[in-house]
From TrEMBL:
Annotated transmembrane regions: none
Pyridoxamine kinase/Phosphomethylpyrimidine kinase domain mapped to chain residues: 11-256
GO cellular component: cytosol
Homology family: Belongs to the ThiD family.
Leading EC class: transferase
Pfam families reported for this sequence: Phos_pyr_kin
Protein name: pyridoxal kinase
Amino acid sequence: MKKTLTIAGSDTTGGAGLQADLKTFQEYGTFGMTAITSIVTMDIDNNWSHDIDTIEPDLVKKQLNTIFSAGNPSALKTGMLGDIRTISVVKEVLTQHQPKNIVIDPVLACKGTAGILLSENAETIQTQLLPLADITTPNLIEAGILSGLGELKTMSDIEKAAVIIHGFGAKHVVIKGGRRFDDQEAIDVFYDGQTFQYLKSPIIHTNNNHGAGCTFAAAITAGLAKGLTTFEAVQTAKTFVHQAIQSGETFNAYLGHIWHGAYRDNGNHLI
Ligand SMILES: Nc1ncnc2c1ncn2[C@@H]1O[C@H](COP(=O)(O)OP(=O)(O)O)[C@@H](O)[C@H]1O
Ligand SMILES: Cc1ncc(COP(=O)(O)O)c(C=O)c1O
């Protein structure tokens, strides 16, 4: 069985973060492992504002040493890292063990928050992790921050951002237009350093989209572990997450999760 790893935060509500990753890894038939970087809780009395409690970087390192002592996973992803020192620890361990198929999801912005989360991490992710990435998966806001272009309003802006982010060393870039770019089609732009490819699906009009970004990156990770090419892994992930959003459920007044099991429920054959 292929082993997959997520280095990410815990979303207490179970829809995003490492919980989304583990569920997705399992749906793909891979054996998921975790290194927890932070714990996210939400304040119901305060408009669902997010609190992020970070795990000490030394403890993140202990978790990674435990995992890598059994050999390299077939693929891994990073999500919310929480602390700049943790980013350095991740870089150190990945440089030491040189695993293949590294997916960097540069979590800087959370759907549950209006503002930018942990934007001070952007530069560190850019310089320390993107050079190790097989693929990075920023959403529109994260791509604007990482590229330094700010708000991305046109397809040409998105393509320019992809070129800049590719220049930081990620072999492939997929910028998720999602619901933010167009109100008819969820367009994601894939760039391999030479050509652009556009992945499109109809926009699903729902608020139950919590966890979509994490799940998309986790599905790419599991697809790579199973031997798909990077573009094939992105294509499959797009379908997987589309169906997960379609089958989302309301959690409370503030939040609705996607359902990570939808692809299999719909009778799809997982690779
Ligand atoms: N309402 C939607 N309908 C269809 N696809 C969506 C919708 N929202 C997001 N997606 C897709 O889900 C994936 C995750 O995107 P997004 O939710 O923008 O990421 P993030 O959670 O990082 O902000 C992308 O493939 C995106 O195109
Ligand atoms: C631990 C963690 N990681 C990542 C995210 C981002 O979630 P999404 O996949 O909805 O963008 C969240 C959002 O709450 C989170 O709690």
